[in-house]
Amino acid sequence: MATTDPSEGKADKSAADPSRQGSNDGAASWESLDRELGCWRNAGKPASFWWRDDDATEPTAALDRLLAISGEEGVPLAVASVPKYLSAELPARLHGCPTVEVLQHGFAHQNHAGKGGGAWELGLHRGAEQVLGELEAGRRIMQDAFASQFIPVVAAPWNRIDRRLLPGLRDNGFIGVSAFGERAPPPYLPGITEANAHLDVLSWKGSPRFRGEEAALRDVLEHLGRRRLGLADPGEPTGILSHHLALDEAAWRFLADLVAFLARHPGASWRSAGELFAPTSGASRA
To answer: What domains lie within the chain, and their CATH numbers?
Structure first.
């Protein structure tokens, strides 16, 4: 699960990928999303989604806006918080928000990789014992702060984690991991559920900014189509990723529109982190 920045390496695959054809022909639009979800509904099973937001450490106006979107639509939201910089005020702010659960966003969101290989906190640029020790310390911080609202899942900073750490995560009390892109095919590691994001509403080249409505909808449509046609794991919900501290006004508007559209569509359903990462007997499947 060593994923790259989701804004990198995005070639236009519409001519070659059957998931981009049929109900997804032409420019991605709300109408094409409606048609795609109609295909799921007609097949007898709504398309599943989940929502992860990264980098929370303290209450802010941006966090309030995020929570309002979730609360108004009754849509579950997984807030990924950085343990090392967790303020005492954040647990109090999130407590009592019925749609919100909390994941662990690494330990310090600190890059330990050299130049040229991307930013990594959860790679093996340090010893595995040190990486896992920090994560375990972070898990204790999160558990003490959020109690049952905390789901012991690592949302990897920069969406990068070395898969060789996964057995150690399981042995240290974690039940899941989340990065970016379609999750790896079987065999799955028993005791660890992997569920990733597939749309980042921001482009990160240069300063973060909204990636644009058509590009964002196309990412959603691509993953939905690949799931429906069996080209991607149909059991992995399509993940929406936001970073509330970095959203510009266009990104906020799109995020609110997307959440509302999916919440009200009979061909879509939302999964909470608690449901998605619930321990199962055997495979790390959602």
So the answer is: 48-271 (3.20.20.370)
